[in-house]
Structures are given as structure tokens and as C-alpha cells.
Amino acid sequence: MRHLLTTDGLSAESATAILDTADELKRTLLGREVRKLPTLRGRTVITMFYENSTRTRVSFEIAGKWMSADVINVSASGSSVGKGESLRDTALTLSAAGADCVIVRHPATGAAHRLAGWLDEAGTAVVNAGDGTHEHPTQALLDAATLRERLGTLDGRRVAIVGDVLHSRVARSNVHLLASLGAEVVLVAPPTLLPVGVRAWPVTVSHELDAELPAVDAVMMLRVQAERMHGGFFPSAREYSIAYGLNEKRAKLLPENAVVLHPGPMLRGMEIGSAVADSPRSAITEQVRNGVHVRMAVLYHLLAGQEHEQHEQDRHSEEGK
């Protein structure tokens, strides 16, 4: 794996390898007083965020540091971007300074792909930490890890993704990944919050949340992204909550072992009730915890996995002589 830019086209085998590595790393660190592995010692990882982030940025930083990488954070406001420097020049500067991996979040769809094209020849890996309304692959991977942990397998499971699908890169990445791993995905949203061409996706589409909840193994509530909305996509926050919010009464429609997810940050009372978000069926805190291990696994596969595979091939070759 050279870069991680999208889940569209990521094979079930590759995704499962990342999830299995995340599980192994989680077990390795369990009970350790000092959570530190030497795996990426000498490697330099740079996070470059052009949009605000708490969970993604912090978990990538922790992931890199737990693997002994040197992690450097670059923000648009504190860099030469504020002086008008282009994304390309910033990326090439970071690569020339010795970055082995650049983790980027950008408001423009396709920014991570452009970055990978510029840095590919330099041998710098790129991880897409969210580009516009396009994709957020590591979020989908940590969601899959959490569901696998709770449900045992994703094959044959039915997952509802609810809310602002139109503006959600989380939804897009999850649709591709969950379908690849054998899950059935149903999108539940008002017609105004569904993208054009959604029925060509590997999903079913519904506008009635109450009708879908009794038949799902997991429900993923999405954040309403008001900052990306220009115009009226629904009458009011109250009416949205009545039709698509997961309150305590509505959560009782779920099967007993169904799991509740949310990528955060949550709009409590509108998208999800506090009683549901904090209930035993909620895996929201686990998503954050698993995010660190999944991002450790991604960094491993990008920066150390190929070397390990080559070492194993060389070892087997020597043994065969």
C-alpha cells in the first residue's frame, strides 16, 4: 500500500489486514505502563490540517508517537499557507524536509489525491484525513473495527447510516468499505440530504427511520454539517430531530444487541439523545479508542509493512538455498 486516499477500491483483503494489525497492536499495548513501540523509530510523520479537528488529529498524533515516530503538526494558520503558499509548494517543502508520511485534511475534494501525485516520486506516503465532502478512509476503518469488535463479523450484517449523507465524507467511505466487507448498507435521510446518483451506490435508500431500525445490527448517526450548507435542506432543527434524531424512545425499536455509532462531534438533542449516546449499546467512545490503533495500523502498513514483507521474502529465499 503506497497511500491511503479512499476506501473505494480498497480490497476486503487489504482492509482486513489493516483491521487485523490494529487488533494485534491493541493486544500488544494492553496493560503496558509505557505505551511505546519501536516500530517507526526514525520515521517522520507530518499532520497538515486545513480544517478544524480534534479526534482525527489527536489520534494520528498519538498513533505516531506510540510507534516512536517523530510527529510534527502543521496548521494552515501557523504556516506559510497564511502568506499565500500553495498546497503543492507546502507539500514539496515538507517532503524535502524529510517527511516520510503526510496526513492531510483539506476542504477541497480531491486535495489528498493531488498531494499524492506530487509526492509519489519523492517516496512520501499520503493519508487522506478528510477531503471536502469526498472521503475519510481512516474513519471508516475505525468504524469497521468497532463494529467487528461488537458484532464479531461484518459479513451479512445490516448497517443504517442516518442523516446528512450529502455532505458526509464519513458516509461515502463507510458505504464502500462496509460493502466490501460484506455488510448490507441502508442510507436513511431526507431527499434533500442525499447526493445525486446515490442509487448507483451499493446501498438501499430509505426516508423512514422508524421503519428501518428494527431490522439493523448497527446504526451510524451522522453530523449535520451546517457549515457546508447554503440554503434550506430541512425546515428546522426541531423537525429534523423529530424525523431523524435517535432519541431514547426511538432507540427502543432497535434489536437488543444493535450498536450505535457516531463519528463526532455530536449535536446532542438534535442528531442523538444524550441517553442514547451514553447508553451501553453506544460504541462512540470505543470508536475514538479504536481510532488510535487503526491509525497505528495504517502507518505501519504504509511505512513499515513493505519493509517487513521484503525482509520475510529475503529470509525465506535464504532458507531455500
From TrEMBL:
Any single Gene Ontology cellular-component annotation: cytosol
Aspartate/ornithine carbamoyltransferase Asp/Orn-binding domain boundaries: 156-302
Alphabetical list of InterPro entries matching this protein: Asp/Orn_carbamoyltranf_P-bd, Asp/Orn_carbamoylTrfase, Asp/Orn_carbamoylTrfase_sf, Asp_carbamoyltransf, Asp_carbamoyltransf_Asp/Orn-bd
Keywords tagged on the record: Pyrimidine biosynthesis, Transferase
GO MF annotations in UniProt: amino acid binding; aspartate carbamoyltransferase activity
Entry's Gene Ontology BP terms: 'de novo' pyrimidine nucleobase biosynthetic process; 'de novo' UMP biosynthetic process; amino acid metabolic process
Residues in Aspartate/ornithine carbamoyltransferase carbamoyl-P binding domain copies: 2-149
Residues reported in the UniProt entry to bind carbamoyl phosphate: R55, T56, R105, H136, Q139, G264, P265
Keyword Transferase: yes
HAMAP family the UniProt entry points to: Asp_carb_tr
Similarity section: Belongs to the aspartate/ornithine carbamoyltransferase superfamily. ATCase family.
Protein name in the entry: Aspartate carbamoyltransferase
Gene: pyrB
